[in-house]
Fold this sequence. Notes:
With about 550 residues, the protein is an alpha+beta fold. The chain has 15 helices and 24 strands.
Amino acid sequence: MNILDSRPGRGLFKLALTSLFLVAAGLSPAAAQSAAEGGTMVFAHEQEPGSLNILHPSAGGGAASATGGLFNVGTYRFPPGADPVPFIISKEAEITNDPFTVTYTIRDDAVWNDGTPITAADYAFTYETIVNPDWTIANRRPYDLITGYEIISDKVIRFDFSQPYAYYQQMFPLLLPKHDLEGKDWDTAWRDGPGVTNGAFKFEAWQKGQQISFVKNEHYWADGPKLDRIVIRFVPETNTLLELLRSGEIDASDPQPQPQIISAVAGLDGMKVNARSGLVTEFMRFNLKTPGLDKAFVRQAIGMGIDRVALVENLMGPIDPEAKPTQSLFFEPTSPYYKPNFSSLDYDPAGAIALLEQNGCVRGADTVFECDGVRLEFGYLSTSGNERRELTFEIVQSFLAEVGIKVNADFAPAAIQFGTRLPEGDFQIISHGGPYNDAKEILTVYGCDSPTNTTGYCNPEADKLANQALQTPDAAARAELMNQYEAIIAKDVALIPYFGLPRMVVYNSKRVEGFNVSPAQDGSVSIGGWYWNWNSHEFHRVQ
């Protein structure tokens, strides 16, 4: 079903999008031109963080980490298509299994941006800050599994765990400087900008509502950086972003793949795309505290009423003609562990109507169903100014109308959607994307005791399976647990996955180069929002 072909210009969009991504697929991160040292890069990002305190719920998840990767680096680095690489530590973490311990040996040359060495005391201070009940922390998992630690030397620390933890390489993705933060109120310390950090760049200034700037860290101990300065401008509107790309006011951006942007940049001289696919999914989620949506059969009917194949064909097909609806959050179809757990939500409008009728729902005069006195009419929150999400809503709305369910546009700017309404549970249906592709990530949004679970969904049996997966180092055994977990949340219809999203950076190759997008990986490594700037030390102006 090709819904968008009936809209003006959609055929041209498909041609432009396909051509651009065919070119992008063959791009190397290395520039053909010679690299220039110094200079400033202006980068546009959709969402402004609520805070630069990345551990605090107010930071806004991906918005904060999209900037956080510039000024703070962690224990491991996650290059695209490769295993995690020790970064702050000089070698692989040493592991024992009975009891489970993790020992880090810190590089001799690793220092903070004031020249102070990074030590085992900083690891200990970071852990103590995260588990301190006096501070507001978005997610204390898995640090609550640590039972103690021993500082063996200035550069060596061992952490003891109450149980095995499979994702130990993802721990300590940022460190806190004890010598700078000890005795300070952590809830406010980095709210408006961090002081002492350890990344390739350091915080310079934040003009709220406009931009954040970072300057070269002269004490950076790894390679680079090549740029003197990076400015992150906040551009939530698609049309504004296009104007800035055309005018040359910005050098690069990390827009979500959407028709208007890709069509426009395909015709701009020097514009290229660096993109990679990964387990990042666009989905529909529910607030189960909403009357009507608290019924699993209603959510099932919504899932069966949406033709996800049509969504993919119209919105993602031009990028990848082989693209299909997401049937697993955790594994790609090529994975030996893949199971299509969400196939129970395949398009079946007649079945959706029958399901509602079997549960006593009746159509009103306007054909919208009513169940136990509750009209099946819901607000649909998503990101205003994002054309792809606006088109997604239109398609979903038209399909659901055919099965007697009405959804109304309830769009908000990204800063409000992710900074206020999602954290506060102020939605009925919400659509967005995320790398909820492993046990740790999924428990942050659906764990019964997670402070960031604002959906009202709780299944103790599912939680038990996910927590078992966290303790299971063997990949095959962990995958089996995650498939069991996913079968439960699919049956409960905790969410409806639409399609996978590639990670991408659009940039003017005549001005800047060095991008090497790192998507969320295969269920064992989740990069989150740090995907575009993990290698910011390599960004450079073109001579």
